[in-house]
Design a protein that fits this description.
Order of helices and strands: HEEHEEEEEHEEEEE
Helix content: 10-25%
CATH topology of the largest domain: Immunoglobulin-like
Largest sheet: 6 strands, mixed
Number of strands: 12
Radius of gyration: 28 Å
Shape: elongated
Length: about 170
């Protein structure tokens, strides 16, 4: 092998290696730049209401007070999936007054719950299932809220899943 043949052989091998490197970089770059490919691992998020919920139940509220509900983000295990991005909707409201916890529970365990005459709801929060957040719902207790027991209802809905919950709060003038 002559010296010239040796140089061409090295240049050819070098070109092939550069081509393979360029192709590998091209194939890998969408994944490493954060773009999603059909076979990427995705963490999804859901939310549960609410931090310090025991404080909500054991506190006596007054007309004009503000309930602050801090939703708790829950990270679901990242899975290799093609699950679409969808919107999660968080809502909260109060309804009352009821004379007793028993009458409140009777009203809300029916097929068509009977709401109280005073109702107040938080602004609906909308989030992506792909981004973690620390959402807060705020409910102002109306100035005309009477003494009694109120149902605090919360719900999280998204895609084909809906979860709701309720607590009893007490309002006294």
């Amino acid at each position: 092998m002559t010296n010239e043949h040796f140089r061409r052989s090295i240049r050819l091998k070098k070109s092939v290696l550069i081509g393979i490197f360029a192709l590998t970089t091209l194939v890998l770059s969408p994944t490493t730049s954060g773009a999603q490919t059909p076979n990427s691992y995705h963490a999804t998020f859901t939310y549960e209401c609410c931090s310090a919920s025991a404080l909500l139940v054991n506190t006596i509220y007054h007309p004009g007070d503000v309930l602050t509900l801090k939703w708790i983000p829950e990270t679901n295990t990242p899975t290799l999936s093609k699950q679409p991005t969808f919107t999660i909707v968080l809502s909260a409201n109060i309804s009352g007054p009821f004379a007793s916890v028993v009458s409140l529970k009777k009203a809300f365990t029916r097929a068509h719950p009977k709401r109280g005459r005073v109702n107040s709801k938080a602004i609906t929060v909308r989030l992506s299932n792909r981004k973690s957040a620390n959402p807060v719902s705020i409910i102002r207790i109306p100035a005309n809220a009477s003494k009694g027991y109120y149902e605090l209802s919360t719900s999280m809905a998204g895609d084909s899943v809906a979860v709701s919950g309720g607590s009893v709060i007490r309002i006294a003038p």
